[in-house]
Design goal:
Blueprint: H1 2-35, E1 41-43, H2 46-56, E2 60-65, H3 73-80, H4 87-90, E3 94-98, E4 117-122, E5 128-132, H5 147-162, H6 168-171, H7 210-223, H8 230-233, E6 244-246, E7 254-257, H9 262-266, E8 273-277, E9 280-281, H10 285-293, E10 300-307, E11 310-317, H11 334-341, E12 345-349, H12 352-357, E13 367-372, H13 380-383, E14 391-395, H14 404-414, E15 420-427, E16 430-437
Parallel strand pairs: 1-3, 2-3
Antiparallel strand pairs: 2-4, 4-5, 6-7, 8-9, 8-10, 10-11, 12-13, 13-14, 14-15, 15-16
Helix pairs in contact: 11-14
C-alpha cells in the first residue's frame, strides 16, 4: 500500500511540474509574439542592437529579463510597454530585450543574478554607463526600485553618453575584469545547457535562469570541498550593511543613515546625492552596489557627492567582513544554500517578546523552524527529525545570537559537505539533540 501511495505522490508531482513547464513556455512564446513586431525593441538580438547603436550614435539599453519569473513582473511590464513616464527617455536609446542568459557574455553583463530584471546602459563600444535593478533584503521590490527612480537613472545615463568619451576614466571600472568563465555554459554545473545553444524554439527547460549562474559559482566551491568565499556568498552587498539606504525614487540620493554606522562615521547625510564611489560614476543603487562589491579588501572607499549643490568627498570605512552584515535570507539563491547547510529548513529569528516568554536571553541563538523541506536533499532536515516550530538554540557548539543568514554563512565557510553538525532544539519546553548533514 505504501508503495502505491508513494507512486501516486510522484505522479502528482510530475504532472504539476509538466503543467508549470508548459505554462512557462507559453509565457515565453507570448513574450516573443508581443515584441517581435516592435519598432522600439530588438528581441533577443544583442548584435543587431549594437549595430544600430553604432549606426545611430544612440546609447544602448539592454533589459535582461527572466520572463517566467514572477518577481519584477509589474515593473518589467511598465518598462516593456513604455510607460508614459519613461517613454520619451526610452526613445533616446536603442532598446534590446534579452529573455535568457544562455550564451550571455559574462565579461560584459554581470548583474545581481538574484534579480530577474536588470538593465544595462552602454555605449556602442561596450563601455557601460550604468546598471539598474538589484535584489533588496526584503521581499518588497519597491524598497529599491521605482519607475521614477528608473527615469532619473535613464536621464543620468543619457548625460554620461553626452559626455563620452571625455568621461571614459570614470566609467572604466564599470566593465568587469576578465571572468573565470566567459559564458554561463562554461560553468561546470551548467555545461549540460550547451546542447541547447543553437535551438531556436523557446522552452524553459532550455533556459539558464539568472539565479542558476550564482548557484553554479557557489556549487563549484562546495563540490571540491572548499569554503565559499564571503564575496561569493554576499555578492552585491546591501548598502545597509554600511549603514545607509538610498531613495528608490531617485537615481542615487541618500534617504537614511543609521546612527553609529560606518556611513555616519564617514559623514554621510540624508539628501546627499552620490556622484561616484571608489572613482566610479554612479547613477543608481545597482551602480553603488557594484562599486562596493568590487572594492575587495580595501579599508575604505572614496564617496563623491553633492550636498546643497556643493561637491564633497568622504572616506567610507570598510571593516573586515563588512559585507557579511547583509541579509541574504530573501534571495532566490539562498534556497540552494539552505539545502547545503540546513537540509531544507527555513529559519526565522524570534522577536524579543517570544524570547522572554521562553526564558531565552537577547544574546542567545534562537531561530525557529518556519518551514521543513519535503523532497530530495531539501528533505534532509525532515529526515533528521526537525519539525516546524522547533527552536534551534545551539548549532555546532555555537550559542550566540544569529540570523538565519549568519548560520548559513557559518555552515558554508566553516563546514564542508559530508560533515555532520550537532544541533540542539527546543520543542515543547524540552531540549532535544539532532544531527544535520552538510550537503
Amino acid at each position: 500500500m505504501r508503495s502505491i501511495v508513494l507512486a501516486a505522490i510522484c505522479l502528482l508531482v510530475a504532472n504539476a511540474s509538466v503543467h508549470a513547464q508548459d505554462e512557462r513556455t507559453k509565457r515565453l512564446n507570448e513574450d516573443r509574439a508581443a515584441f517581435e513586431s516592435s519598432e522600439q525593441w530588438y528581441y533577443n538580438d544583442l548584435e543587431r542592437g549594437f549595430a544600430e547603436a553604432r549606426k545611430s550614435g544612440k546609447p544602448l539599453l539592454v533589459v535582461l529579463r527572466c520572463v517566467p519569473c514572477e518577481a519584477c513582473k509589474v515593473f518589467d511590464e511598465q518598462v516593456a510597454h513604455e510607460d508614459p513616464r519613461i517613454k520619451p527617455l526610452l526613445e533616446q536609446f536603442v532598446c534590446v530585450r534579452v529573455i535568457k542568459t544562455n550564451g550571455l557574455d559574462l565579461s560584459l553583463f554581470q548583474s545581481d543574478f538574484d534579480q530577474s530584471f536588470a538593465v544595462f546602459m552602454l555605449n556602442a563600444d561596450r563601455t557601460i554607463y550604468g546598471r539598474y535593478g538589484t535584489r533588496p533584503e526584503t521581499e518588497s521590490q519597491e524598497t529599491e526600485m521605482s519607475l521614477e527612480g528608473f527615469a532619473d537613472t535613464l536621464r543620468q545615463g543619457l548625460e554620461l553618453h553626452q559626455g563620452y568619451p571625455r568621461n571614459r576614466d570614470r566609467l572604466a571600472a564599470k566593465t568587469p575584469g576578465k571572468p573565470r568563465y566567459a559564458l554561463p555554459e562554461d560553468l561546470p554545473e551548467l555545461q549540460k545547457y550547451r546542447e541547447f545553444a543553437k535551438v531556436e524554439k523557446l522552452e524553459t527547460r532550455m533556459c539558464i535562469h539568472c539565479h542558476q549562474i550564482r548557484e553554479a559559482e557557489r556549487l563549484e566551491y562546495r563540490k571540491r570541498g572548499a569554503a565559499i568565499p564571503l564575496e561569493t556568498l554576499f555578492t552585491w552587498p546591501a548598502t545597509t550593511a554600511l549603514g545607509f539606504a538610498l531613495d528608490p525614487n531617485t537615481s542615487a540620493t541618500v534617504a537614511d543613515v543609521t546612527k553609529g554606522s560606518p556611513a555616519e562615521q564617514a559623514g554621510l547625510r540624508p539628501d546627499d546625492r552620490l556622484i561616484a564611489v571608489d572613482g566610479q560614476a554612479v547613477i543608481s543603487l545597482a551602480d553603488v552596489k557594484w562599486a562596493l562589491d568590487q572594492a575587495g579588501d580595501k579599508l575604505e572607499v572614496a564617496v563623491e557627492l553633492e550636498r546643497d549643490d556643493m561637491p564633497l568627498t568622504l572616506a567610507l570605512p570598510l571593516a573586515k567582513n563588512w559585507r557579511a552584515k547583509s541579509d541574504i535570507s530573501s534571495r532566490v539563491t539562498t534556497w540552494d544554500l539552505r539545502r547545503m547547510v540546513t537540509g531544507g529548513l527555513v529559519l526565522e529569528s524570534l522577536d524579543d517578546e517570544t524570547r522572554t516568554e521562553l526564558k531565552l536571553s537577547q544574546v542567545e541563538l534562537a531561530l525557529r523552524v518556519k518551514y521543513v523541506g519535503q523532497y530530495g536533499e531539501h528533505a534532509a532536515g525532515k529526515q533528521a527529525g526537525f519539525q516546524e516550530g522547533d527552536i534551534i538554540v545551539e548549532f555546532d557548539g555555537m550559542i550566540r545570537r544569529w540570523r538565519e543568514t549568519d548560520l548559513i554563512a557559518y555552515g558554508l565557510t566553516e563546514r564542508r559537505r559530508g560533515d555532520s553538525v550537532a544541533v540542539t532544539i527546543l520543542r515543547d519546553g524540552q531540549h532535544l539533540e539532532r544531527k544535520l548533514p552538510m550537503q
